[in-house]
Write a structure and sequence with these properties.
Layout: H1 14-33, E1 46-48, E2 54-56, H2 57-73, E3 78-81, E4 95-103, H3 105-110, E5 116-123, E6 126-134, E7 139-144, E8 148-151, E9 154-155, E10 166-168, H4 171-181, E11 186-188, H5 194-202, E12 208-211, H6 217-229, E13 232-235, E14 254-258, H7 262-277
Helix pairs in contact: 1-2, 4-7, 5-6
Length: 278
């Protein structure tokens, strides 16, 4: 990938950044696919990280590839990735690249195709470009600030209907939201990649999606912009949009819903996560 460096200080073009992220995500996805076996265990070597989550040499190879490509093209940006030690040098930068080379590693390991490569460019605390690429599903979600969001090239629009009929996320939280609102909701079976789950809300495959507490910025940053550009939002209990490039990268519970539905869902969401905390 021969792309000239892009200057953040020169007010980088969001569409150019989106295309850069998409190219890197597709290349990393193709690399990871070499280790993926649909319906069977991966050929990659699997180890367990501190905390118990798995990591494979496919995760590490994809991470290394994306870091090399994106740092060459965005030399002024800091770096944050699930598979790279965070040295906090990024905090001194105005811009930041956030990457998860394989979001949904457990799915990847067992041959479930619902895993994704996620990449976002943050400037002044908010994403201006984001890509979620699901190689085993041949799906690519991409967004640039002010330029909309796409799903495999087609315009992406979040559902705006009320009442909601389908949701994705932890069953106890979604059930509590439904009970508070007095709704009958179809709860989609667990989606292993959080980035992909949020993309389902961005394209209207579900009416809203929930993330339990302890998600990380690399899980959500790209999907955050996809939701925003599709006419939705990703919010915590405060109801405010999220800011990135802080020392703390772990999040509380999150709600992804259309601009129309979010104000009606937020109180029930707060009740639901309050119950989980007690």
């Amino acid at each position: 990938m021969d792309i000239p460096p892009l200057s953040v200080d020169a007010e980088i073009d969001a569409a150019a950044a989106r295309d850069l992220l998409a190219a890197a995500a597709r290349e990393a996805g193709a690399l990871a696919l070499e280790y993926f076996r649909l319906g069977a265990r991966t050929s990659a070597q699997v180890e367990t990280k501190v905390g118990g989550s798995p990591v494979t040499n496919a995760d590490l190879a994809a991470d290394s590839l994306m870091k090399r490509r994106l740092q060459e093209a965005l030399p002024e940006a800091g770096w944050l990735s699930e598979e790279t030690v965070d040295d906090f040098e990024r905090l001194s930068r105005r811009s930041l690249v956030i990457v998860d080379p394989i979001d949904g590693t457990r799915a990847f390991v067992i041959g479930d195709p619902r895993w994704a490569v996620s990449a976002a460019l943050i400037i002044d605390g908010r994403p201006i470009a984001g890509v979620v690429h699901a190689p085993a599903l041949d799906e690519t979600y991409a967004a640039a600030r002010g330029a909309g969001a796409t799903f495999n090239g087609a315009t992406l629009t979040a559902g705006v209907g009320w009442p909601p009929r389908a949701a994705a996320g932890p069953k106890p939280i979604v059930e509590a939201i439904a009970a508070t609102l007095g709704l009958a909701l179809e709860i989609v079976p667990r989606v292993p990649s959080l980035a992909y789950r949020l993309c389902m809300a961005a394209r209207g495959a579900v009416d809203f999606a929930v993330a339990a507490e302890n998600s990380h910025d690399w899980d959500i940053a790209a999907a955050d912009l996809l939701l925003e550009e599709a006419g939705a939002r990703l919010i915590g209990a405060s109801g405010e949009r999220l800011l990135y490039n802080a020392r703390q990268v772990r999040r509380g519970a999150l709600l992804a819903a259309s601009e129309a539905a979010a104000p009606r869902l937020i109180e029930a969401f707060r009740v639901a996560i309050g119950r989980r905390a007690n």
